[in-house]
Amino acid sequence: MSDKVKASASGKEKIKEVYKRALYTNRNGETKPFTTATLAEAANTTEDKIKYLIGQNTQKVKEVDRFVIENVVNAINAGLEKNDIDEKLIPSDIVDNWYPDTIPTEFKNVIDDKTQIFCGRKFVFNAITEFIQNHQSGYFTILGDAGMGKSAIAAKYIVDNPGTICFFNIRAEGRNRPDVFLKLIRQQLVNRFDLQNVENDDLSTLLTKANGKLSNSENLVIVIDALDEVDQDDHGNLLNLPTILPDKVYIILTRRPYNSDDKRLTLSPNTKYAELDLREYQQNSKDDVESYILEFLGLEKYKAGLESWINQQNNISKPQFVKTIAAKSENNFMYLRYVLEAIAEGFYQDEKLEELPAGLQGYYASHWRIMGMSKKPLPKDKIKIIYAICFAKEAISDDLIAKHSKQSKLKVQEVIRDWTQFLQIQKQENNQLNLYRFYHESFRDFLRKQDIVKATEISNDMSEGLYD
User: What is the pLDDT of residues 177-230, one digit of tens each?
Assistant: First the structure.
């Protein structure tokens, strides 16, 4: 990491705007607004460098040391009134790419996909900000049912807050075990803080070492998604999360609702903990859902198909469409993603607006029915292919799907085409091999329901033994 950095144009404007509201105490004990000279003195730097940082001097100074940015930030923040706490600066406000890119390649596609369309959720981010501002360290958990946007919230926070350390539990890829978690968290902490000799350190030790590298204006935030998908045999904290966190270290968790036995997070009495349950914010979510639909309607890929379908409905305006789909979604973003894409691609060509399924589980059942999976006689060849993908422990190739379902590769490809919207496709071996897994655990849960298994005549022996 270079010791020299350049302030961005927006960063210079930010300093120029905020430092004028900050106060300092001079040698006579008088409190006065900062000038460039007094800010330089407080930050232990030169006035030329301050002028560069507020855009007044672009000739003498072209870049500054990283510690100058930290000193200026600390001096300004110390001089802000309590009611200006939201205006406090952080180095990444001033310098683009202040933090090295720490996000593992394993999670880049997940984050890009989850933030492709993102609307609102300000009430969540405001709650996280307030928690961090009001506590020296702690855990903050976001609870919600499948499809409520927990992973998208996690991804958006990471994108908007450079330097955030992250881990996404993905059961279908086998990336949901404590050993994998510790390896990837360690890798990110080493990249951000240039930690040395940490190969055998546990998470508590790593966090303590990272804490020692934080500047006065920095926090360390770790985002862990889908804690409910963790695969762990012992009875300790999931992912062996610490009972105590160092100061300025915050862990944000997302998970589905749980009972007390499943929580598996025992903390010290002094460790701060808060939860935000998305199910309790229906009105906030309703507004975000409608914004999401409007944004989806403008996507070039789907725009023509959606407008054509809406025009075919009897006297349905775009606002009516938005309101109706929002209501049917039951504030579930996964539902919106599936249904809007299906409408655009002609899947509901013969359906009326009022006939569209309601809720995520309703959509799954509707798709299952429309694809002929419950007609008589049952299409057992197709069903076995779907269940072969469902019970795979990780993303699986079409060759292996054919082998385990005992169907032809041609039939496998036909079913994959019909179920593309539910599948995530991963490229392997120089893009010569495609691996398939279901996009969301909620659909796997739908398939695992006993009534679905019974209705499709898939025996427990097949579901339990397919991938021994």
Answer: 999 999 999 999 998 888 889 988 999 999 999 998 887 778 999 999 999 888
Q: How far apart are CA 335 and CA 326, in angstroms?
A: 10
The answer to whether position 375 is within a domain reads: no
* 196 and 119 in a common domain: yes
CA-closest candidate to residue 72, choices 130, 14, 2, 28:
14
Whole-number Å distance between alpha carbons of 204 and 196: 15
- Measured in residues, the chain has a length of 468
pTM of the model: 0.75
> N- to C-terminal Cα distance for the chain?
46
Contacts of 345 (CB under 8 A, 6+ apart): 305, 421
Residues 32 and 149 in one domain: no
Q: Which of these three, 94, 114, 142, is where a domain ends?
A: 94
Query: Residue 330 and residue 323: Cα distance in Å, rounded?
Result: 11
- The total of structural domains in the chain comes to 4
Other beta carbons within 10 Å of 336: 23
DSSP element (H, E) containing 255: strand 249-255
Query: In the 8-state DSSP scheme, what is residue 309?
Result: H
Count Cα atoms within 13 angstroms, Cβ side, for 418.
Answer: 17
Both tokens assigned to 144: 């919600």
CA distance 426 to 395: 8
Same-domain status, 120 and 240: yes
Calculate what percentage of the chain has a pLDDT beyond 90.
Answer: 17
- In tens, the pLDDT along 292-350 reads 898 888 888 888 988 888 888 878 888 888 899 899 888 888 888 888 888 888 888 87
User: Looking at this protein, which amino acid is placed at residue 342?
Assistant: A
Task: State which of 221, 246, 280 marks the end of a domain.
Answer: 280
Which structural domain, as residue segments, surrounds residue 167?
105-280
**Could you tell me if residue 99 is inside a domain?**
no
- What mean pLDDT is predicted for residues 55-60? 75
Q: Report the pLDDT averaged over residues 114-132.
A: 88
| pLDDT above 90: residue 404 | no
**Which residue has better confidence, 467 or 19?**
19
Report the DSSP pairing between strands 423-428 and 138-143: unpaired
Contacts (Cβ under 8 Å, ≥6 apart) of 468: none
Instruction: Choose among 41, 51, 266, 39: nearest CA to 139.
Output: 266
